[in-house]
Amino acid sequence: MANNQGRRRRFGSVRQLKSGRWQARYRDPATGQLRSAEDMYATKTDAEVALTHIEADITRGQWADPEAGKVHFGEYATAWLKDRKLAARSRERHESVIRLHLLPTFGDRSLSSITTAQVRAWRTACLTRTGEPTVVKAYQILRAILNTAVDDELIRRNPCRIKGADRYDVPERPVLTVAEVFAVADAIPSRYRLLVLLAAFTGLRFGELASLRRRDVDTENAALMVRRSQAEMQTGALFDKAPKSDAGVRPVAFPTELLPDVKRHLDGYAGLGRDGHVFQGPQGGRLRRSNFRDDWINARTKAGVTGGVHFHDLRHTGNTLAASGASLRELMTRMGHSTPRAALIYQHMVNGRDREIADRLGSMIRETRGDVDS
Predict the structure, then answer these.
(1) Would you state the pLDDT for residue 92?
(2) Nearest Cα to 193, choosing from 257, 276, 279, 274?
């Protein structure tokens, strides 16, 4: 029988150090330079087994440079964010989440040192000091950063593997009755009355309403043309942004019963000229959530609408009221959630089914006011 003692290994080599432990060495498949395995081993057999695993990883194309994963998370996250194509507001939110919720725990750690157990412990700690929606967002961003690190071959596996951590159950938001909508509209300062009514009976978002110009209001067809949405940075800067998709640009019919309110508002509160903003702040400047919030809270309290109703719940109310008799496609189009280009659907929307939806809302308004045709 042939004696294999002393035969050189086909891949790599092992050697015993002065400490008595064993070291495994091999050629870097990319550079050809000699490098050592990350760990030291108690026996020669352990070192040889480690070499066998390294060789198998290289053969399968699954080998990753152990040095690559030593990049600090903070450094990598900064570069990751810089490379993302994000809208200004989204970039600001990502930066805030990374700075406040990820860097304090992971910033000085190397990418390869982050484990699933550490991610789980971080998440548990976060849930004790901030709301679940924020923690879910932070987890999603952490997972996205580490997914990119996997793609860059800096780590072999993403440690964000916590089932269900990327979502949460959104509590059911309240739906106001038509009478409650008018009660709040009657209680709020007159410059904001139409804002409340249109939010409820068109389902437009606050940002879409705040960005409306006079030229976007079609009083002949009782419709609004949504072209943009106002966004606010943490610095307080305001800007109009384009919709995320073609579906965001859309005409939305409103009940003809609101036409007197629309005309009174345009005459008394809207900015001048075709490009004048329909809704303005109390001093004639841009409408901000901050200069509207107190008026909203006071009005809902005065109207007796309880349950912590948010202004955005008017959109939910509008969705719910409009859903009666509307198909899913019609409702999605009205709310800006579908993909058809607005230019192709404008005539259909104003003169067709969207007008029928608005007319049904109008009948609800007449019934609430007590002026239903006999």
Answers:
(1) 92
(2) 279
Mean pLDDT of 278-288: 90
Mean pLDDT of the chain: 84
> What pLDDT is attached to residue 107?
94
The confidence score (pLDDT) of residue 340 equals: 37
Residue type, 304: G
125 contact partners, CB below 8 Å, separation of at least 6: 105
Q: Which residues contact 317 (CB under 8 A, 6 or more apart)?
A: 175, 176, 181, 200
Burial category of 262 from C-beta neighbours within 10 Å (exposed 0-12, middle 13-18, buried 19 and up): buried
Give strand pairing partners of 319.
none
Walk across the sheet containing 223-226 and list its strands. 217-218, 223-226, 250-253
What is the enclosing helix (H) or strand (E) of 225?
Answer: strand 223-226
Confidence at residue 66, expressed as pLDDT on a 0 to 100 scale: 65
Take residue 218 and report the two structure tokens written for it: 């079609």
| Count of beta carbons in the 10 Å neighbourhood of residue 82 | 8
- Taking a C-beta distance cutoff of 8 angstroms, is the pair 178, 365 a contact? yes
**Residue with structure tokens 């989440």?**
97
Identity of the residue numbered 160: C
Residue 169: C-alpha distances to residues 42, 101, 165, 166, 174 (Å): 50, 21, 11, 11, 15
- Report how far residue 200's alpha carbon sits from residue 226's, in angstroms, rounded to the nearest whole number: 15
Strands 223-226 and 34-36: unpaired
Give catalytic residue positions.
205, 312, 315, 337, 346
Q: Is the pLDDT of residue 215 over 80?
A: yes
Encode pLDDT of 188-206 as tens digits. Answer: 999 999 999 999 999 899 9
Cβ–Cβ under 8 Å, residues 226 and 251: yes
What phi, psi does 22 have (nearest 5°)?
A: -110, 145
Distance CA 364, CA 360 (A): 7
Q: How many residues appear in the chain?
A: 374
Q: Which of 252, 260, 254, 284 is nearest to 270 (CA)?
A: 284
pLDDT interval class at 348 (50, 70, 90): very low
